[in-house]
Amino acid sequence: MKTDSELRAEVLSELQWDTSIRGEDIAVSVQDQVVTLAGTVDNYAKRYAAERAVERVKGTWAIVNSMAVKLPGGLVRTDAEIARAALNALSWHVQVPEERIRVKVSDGWLTLEGEVDRQYEKQAAENAVRYLVGLKGMTNLITLRGVRLSDITQRIRSSLKRHEEVDDGPTTAETSGWRMTLHPSHG
Q1: Is residue 13 domain-shared with residue 63, that is, in the same domain?
Q2: Count of structural domains within the chain
């Protein structure tokens, strides 16, 4: 296990390596493998990029992102402008079921809410709005609709059959957390 000072040095190196945030005023502290980012950046994309850079460093157990976004005067947008831009971005993204997504903006912080069928739709919604001008931060509260285990098992089995990977016998599914293992039934 790395010491906190070794981890801090690696985080600083990773932040320097990332060209999208190079030269920013970011302070890094580490205590018990928890990395804290502080300072000010001029847009949300840099705040997001700094957090992603820390996630890439092996040995980071948790991240506290206390960085503030201080927009230059020309990039400041009203909450209404950000909301309209977000709705427009969502409507232009082919993987986003826009009719199921709600947008809230408060002091430049965007919150996405709603319910979608697939994880990729949730991620696509976030990706569609992440780089909007004037954004200070974002929270993605979009949830996934409930899916029954038997439905997933049948869909996977059908897919495997289409690709001639399984026989026609029954299949059982065993789940552990987010992992599913399919077993041919014997009997």
Answers
A1: yes
A2: 3
